[in-house]
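Long-time lurker, finally posting.

We've been working with ABC transporter permease subunit (Nocardia rhizosphaerae) and I want a structural starting point before designing mutants. I don't trust myself to interpret raw outputs, so I'm hoping someone here can both generate the structure tokens and explain anything notable. Sequence follows.
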Amino acid sequence: MTTTIEPSIATTHTVVVAETLRTTRRGLLGWTAGITVAAVAYASFYPQMAKNGAEQTANLPEGLRDALNMNDIGSAAGYLGSTVFGLLVALLAMFFGAALGARVTAADEESGTLDLLLAHPITRASLLLQRFAALVAAATGVGVVLWLAMLAIRGSAELTSISAGRFAAQCLHLVLLTVLFGALATAIGAVTGRRGTVFAVTAVAGVTAWAAHTFADQIGLGGLAYLSPFHYYIDSEPLRHGIDPLAVVVLAAASIALVTAGTYRFTRRDLG
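Top reply, 14 upvotes:
Generated this for you. Predicted structure of ABC transporter permease subunit:
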């Protein structure tokens, strides 16, 4: 699921956003298929979990059930919010955002093609921002496909207690989470210019944020959860209550701040 972005995209007659999406289409299709198939496969297990979920989770320590939000695994919203959107899909989206963000500038700088791109009439800031806009478009596309997939299996998987609007709210929160980690990767790439470093640091930060959100109460540091993007992504339970305006604002504002900082540094750094 790796792709390369051709250095010819930054021409006078080419829109960077569209060309970025075109040249990365195979990787984007792979990520979209992977996230959607994983979500659909696990969501399809809900009828079995509705019948036997309480028995299957009874042997888990109470603290672990609380941490993983598995106390209401017998309901559709509880099951999807804990195992599917709360864990599997969230972590996949995090890595997806990191992978896309690593390619905004760092991939070309590391491969030595960034100079060729910037030799065309395009500024550093414009290149970074248009590449990031392509990342937002790609994340939105994944969210839309996932939403349609959930609606497609909604009846057969006995998920009708969750409305189409609530599924849309959860997918919007997922898009914002993806964009946030993409913004973090973009900013790190703008500072370091090394794709491997970008992906590694973003992945570690993401897993740490997920662990802080999940286990903060168990270690007596519940306040840490509010510093994690996963708190704003899932704790308002979009599958039950719909879109959380505060969560949307926080995730979007954090993404804007990261990209702004990355752009500032990228436009002033010696690219060698």
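Before you design anything, note these points.
Residues 191 and 270 are 10 Å apart (CA to CA).
The chain has 13 helices and no strands.
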